[in-house]
Amino acid sequence: MALEDTCGLLACIVHRVTSEAAHAASDWWTPRRIFWIATIGIYLSWCLVTLSLQGNLALDHVEMLMWGRGWQVSYWKHPPLPAWLAEAVFVATGRAVWPQFFIAPALVATTAWVVWRAALDLVGPWRALLAALSLQGCVYYNYESDVLNHNLIQLPFVAALIWAGWHAVRGSARAWIAFGVISGIAIYGKHTAAFSSIAVVVFSLLVRDSRRQWLSRGPWLGMLAGTLTVLPHLWAMWRLGFSPLRTATLDHDGGFHESVPAEPWWGRVAFPSEFVGAQFLMLLGVWIMMFLLFARPGEPTIEHMRPPKQMRPAAHYYAWCTAFPVMVAAVLSAIINLHMNSLWAMAWLPFAGLAVLLWVQRPIGMSGLRTFWIAWCIQTSATLVFVAVKMSVGPYLSGRATNVLFDGTALAAHVGERWTARFPGAPLTLVIGPHFVAGSVCVYHASHPELIIDGLPIRSPWIETKRIEREGAVLVWEGDSTPSWADQFGARSEVERFDLPLRTSAALPPRRMAIAFISPQSFLHAP
Length: 527
Fold this sequence. Notes:
The protein is mostly helical. Helix content is about 55%, strand content about 5%. The protein has 20 helices and five strands. The protein has a five-stranded mixed β-sheet. α2 (about 30-55) packs parallel to α15, α3 (about 60-70) packs across α4 (about 80-90) and α7 (about 175-190) runs parallel beside α10 (about 220-240).
């Protein structure tokens, strides 16, 4: 009998200990902790994949570093913000290349935080967590998140301006000012950010309660703040003949078409349909996760009550800010018969998941949460694995190599050796050539020379052309032919051609490179 009592006592103790442990574990895994663990985990995973598998900075990233050397308020093709960011990190880290791989994932992680904070005040911690995690269901926030460019730089700023806009349309004058300033900063990232700003303004004019605010100072202070923020960029674009607004007419060589070829009449239907369809496809992962999320009636839920009905205005707002830019772009595409790149909508969709969570009033069940989590894990890990396989195994399977397998380090070393052999003691300060191959020399060479982009001094206006004669330069390009821009810089050496192997053991042909030298002034009359 004593043995039975002892066993019963032990069983009670074990049950109580396990119950308390389970309760403690459930208390520890709060939505806030889950958000930070998931966000930091994704951030570090992307940093690790890109840092370990990309042998060279991507084309867009190299271009940003070349532009950033000039610290211009506008460049010939795009606004300046990503170039500023890349150059700032480059300078702050002693011009080390590896920190550059941490920038793009950090922008996505910041966007997730903005969505989390925006949702937290509206729907509570669990739905805020799901809204932030749902970003990984959108292609723009996972597969496209590894390269710093003008599309990616917008993500946190557009999300922030929409968040500020929600508080603005509810009557906060300070939120209107924040909305204006953030909208201006977002335009320094890419001009398409203006579509989201316009969506907020139009919403405030259509909704009766918000429309009354235009009789107060808040909206006007916001418009003034935004105008003052973006005014230096507008002035710089005016000096450039507004060439950044003509990027839709760029040709394959990086120049502008003098006249845009006429598109077929059916493009007015096909182009907008393709653009809108692409956005639905990019959000497919979000739709799948949201479909799996909501529980059957009567299931135990993670919420004590349904979302309050007064959140319906927020549902209208975030759905409007998601759909309006896409619809306006589609209408413009139809009117001017222009093929819209799907990536132009990259920053417009951060709150698609939150809009669904606000619209659907059904409670969230535990089974729905589990299936959401499974779908999220599959999509997140599958994207990372796909990108890793594409970078490492892809060249063996496809017979093609992406530009991240270009060996900029070896090219810079070869150019540096040939320069030193010809002009011992003279520093290499200028490179002339295409922004990627010649720009890679500037990134990876120890002296980090400046680049006359694409051999066109007008694209690097911060570099005085007189420096070429005084300091000399190396011309770098790819291919067996000599480009026309190579003859505009005066006397140069004979062209040296060589093969540059790629950074892969796959049986791929090397890149055919060419270099030529312009002597520094001090060597022109040397014996």
